[in-house]
Amino acid sequence: MSRSQLPLNALRAFEAAARLESFSQAADEIHVTHGAVSHQVKGLEEFLGVDLFARTGRRVVLTGDGKFFAERVRAAMQQIGEAAAAISRHGRANRLAVSTMPSFASRWLMPRIGRFMDAHPDLEVSIHSSLSLVDFVRDEIDAAIRFGRGNWPNVHEEIVMHDEYFPVCSPHLNRGRLPKRPQDLARFKLLLSDQEPWTPWFRAAGVDLPEPTGPEFNDAALMLQATEAHQGIALARRSISEADIASGKLVRLFDIALPSDSAYYLVWPKHREASKKILTFRDWLLGETKRGKRTRIKASAAD
């Protein structure tokens, strides 16, 4: 161990051993072996030229020099931790990290997020897409957009958009010979999205058809890709299909929509107050929802 450089990894092992008065417990805390802690402490003692611990069998007790050094090492490490936290908070002040499902990210959020960034150039926006619930601390996420019925544990939640379902397909499916009545769906392959069955829509349409058996997709965006590729008819959420309907990649079948009993929520950790950037993003989401409603009303009036 060089005399010109203080061994920082050994300081960490020493601080834990001094606080816990045990090499074994220190090893467990910092996820190394008992031998590694012993070796690092011994190296630190050689570096300093003093004994930091008195060893009596399996027990270790701080010497006078050890107590003096431990107090100052602990204070220094606390200051380093506080400085790191302060820098992290400052660095994240202008960063907005949002997690959401891949289908919503690709089909609804990404085509619109440019408007948010143009309106708030001071914010660095980071979008994370995942089918799993986010770990806000581990993944350094500020807020998440979830689709469901709410009442998730340990989060604040606000509804930002409701949704509805209706059948869609490619205009070229079956060489353009598309079903004209809901009961005609029995002759077509019906695609399934995970946890979004057809049966409630069948009831709303007044037809008695069995629940289709697949193909089934765990991501609604993948289901719509298959639909665009003429693989079948999908029961799609308006939020993630309306852009493809507007572009002509998909067509909506029948004027029957089933309101979803789930909604899109903006959520963030319950132990945090909503920051200004989260509230700004929430207000933008609500504004985009209203914009979409106005667009649909105008299109309906034009028809």
Provide a compact summary of the structure.
This protein has nine helices and eleven strands.
Structural overview:
This protein has 3 domains: 8-91, Winged helix-like DNA-binding domain superfamily/Winged helix DNA-binding domain (Arc Repressor Mutant, subunit A); 93-160 and 262-302, Periplasmic binding protein-like II (D-Maltodextrin-Binding Protein, domain 2); 163-260, D-Maltodextrin-Binding Protein, domain 2, CATH 3.40.190. The protein is built from 9 helices and 11 strands. It has helices spanning 8-20, 23-30, 34-48, 64-92, 102-119, 199-205, 220-228, 238-247, 276-302; strands at residues 53-56, 59-62, 95-100, 124-129, 143-148, 155-169, 190-193, 216-217, 233-237, 251-252, 258-269.
